[in-house]
Amino acid sequence: MSVPQQQFDGFRLDFPATLDDARNAVRSVIEWLADQQILPDECQQWELVLAEAANNAVNYATPEQSLLTVRIEAALSTHDIEVRITDHTSGFDWPDHVELPEDDECDHGRGLFIISSLTDHVSYLRGKGHNVLCLRSQRKSTPKPQEDTEATLELMTAEVASCYETLANIFRLIAEAGNDVEPVALASRWLEELRELAGADFLVLRMAGTEAGRLPIVGGVPSAIAWDPLLEIRNHDAVETRAAVTRQDQWFDESTTFSTTDPLRKAGEHISGLSHPLESGGDLAGVLTVGVFKPRWEPSARDLNVVRSLGDFLGALLHGLHRRDEANQSRLMKRELQIAADIQRSLLPAELPQTPFVHCAAHLATGGEVGGDYLDAILLPDGSLLFVVADVMGKGVPAALFATAFHSLLHSHLDLASQPSRLMRRLNKAMFAELDRADMFITAQLVHISADGLTLQVCGAGHAPLLLSGGSQIQEVCADGPPLGVTADADYQDFSVSLASYTHVLLHTDGLSDVVSGGGILSRDELHTWLRGVAAAASDAGTSRDSLHRLHRSAVDAASQQDDATFMIITRGAQTLTANTQNSLSHAKG
Amino acid sequence: MTLTASAQLTAPAELCAATARLWRDRLDLEIKPGHEEVCIDLSKTRFIDSSGLGVLLTLNKNLRARGASLKLINPSSAVCQLIELTRLHRVFEMIHD
Description:
The structure holds two protein chains of two kinds. Chain A is α+β, with helices and mostly antiparallel strands. Chain A has twelve helices and 22 strands. In chain A, the strands form four sheets. Chain A has a six-stranded antiparallel β-sheet. In chain A, strands 18-17-20-21-12-22 form a six-stranded mixed β-sheet. The longest helix of chain A is centred in the middle third of the chain and has 47 residues. The relative contact order of chain A is 0.07. By secondary structure, chain B is of the alpha/beta class. Chain B is globular and about 30 Å long. Chains A and B meet through helix 1, helix 2 and helix 3 of A and helix 2 and helix 3 of B.
């Protein structure tokens, strides 16, 4: 038997003209048909038809003709199966009407009937030593569409190429991000690149995280479009917020109805595209919107791959950069606060001055941050003393800077110390412009005590009242001048008090007890009771300071608040300096 | 009770032009003149063509000529379809178990 030959678009086989070879040839054709997804029932019918046809080609051969081969060819079209059998016998006349034998019991004459019955079309071309039987039937099975291998290969190649392209771009992105580039500039440049790569007309990138509940824009191209800078996530009507909330891609096209508040309306009326949520570590990092100025956008798989992969990576990168900036900012802030705290600490006197007639002790607290509280005690050349307690509005670096300026000005005008109101006016004039520009103010209290400790002059600028006690009574000296920085030509008054009947004087900020507004941590009565107590007990300045600190501390703990009180105790008399008073200034962080 | 002399034979898987001669020889060998009935088991026959039918028709004619009968036992669906196509179901006695 010959080897099957398949040089044409079908099956072809030449076989010797014997019944065994004919049978094997038919089997080969049927196997080929089965391989071509022809149904088993069809194969079974064709097997019978071809067996009859091949047998005829063999049976009609003379011994000489049987030396020649018979050719069987099968071909498939979309709708038909066609088989040709070519033999080299003398052939026969194909009858006009093929019928069964009249005698049912006749043992031959049914082959042509079987062939005709089981095929749609039969033609027999009889030639001189060359006959062709052509058989054709409609296919009962619909052929499966043939895979376009070339197109598939092309698609796969494009996909692999796009993966490499995306990877290469990601590496470039990483390299650029490593150059400490500003995130917004990085985003803008890459949005332009992405627009080119994806064949899009416009892109908008919004990042979450910087403002809760909002999606501020990081970049948008083309820049000619006035993209909305901020999108509220609660605006559920917007395509971008739907992507953010559902964490799913949101497609839009000409059939999409954009709400009046949808920022994408800025891109035009006939737009289409995709809003793609960006995630980083399970958190929403932002939303990337890619679109075209056409009613429909049908991006290729490669374009989508580029948009999603690069978009996701860009989102994660920007999210990371934002967090890095936040961490840097936080470190910077801590460092600045540390510097401010150092400055503030440097303003404090190392030791408060003590004289034979006047002793003092003080406590400064900053509530855990760099505060605006300021205190000072200065022994003047004539032996008198100037005590200062001030509170710069606010906390942090700006408050510390104004405290520094206050300190410098104070020390450069000590010639006015015996007249606190003049000194206060001078301080107000010198600081008004800066305070006013910064929209800040300072409350302050200046207390001057004569060298013999018998006369006290006080001037207040919006500060808590000065408290005096001799053990049985309490004297409040209210300051009636405005805080520094409120009025350029503010007037201040001195209040003169004879200290003959007082032993203890208390200066404090409103963190201890806001006597004026009643909002402090210690009530006015509590403070009065305490002062009377220490005066009656003739407690020295250090002991009194510690006593008040304990009282305030317990009140602070009970109210779960921060210790942000600053106060100074001045005692008059001949008390012996205790170890506490020698350590006259305590400084505590809350 | 009368016992009928019967020959039981199993047809090959393919009963076609290529196997017809061998099959005919075997029938000649197996079937004796005393057999009043011949049963051919066609259950294993998956392919039969007009030559195979011709063998069965010849056998049937010969048996009937001497008063014996042929029974086709459990013909497969392929065999049945061809017998019906060629209307030989009017000729053959077919028995399905």
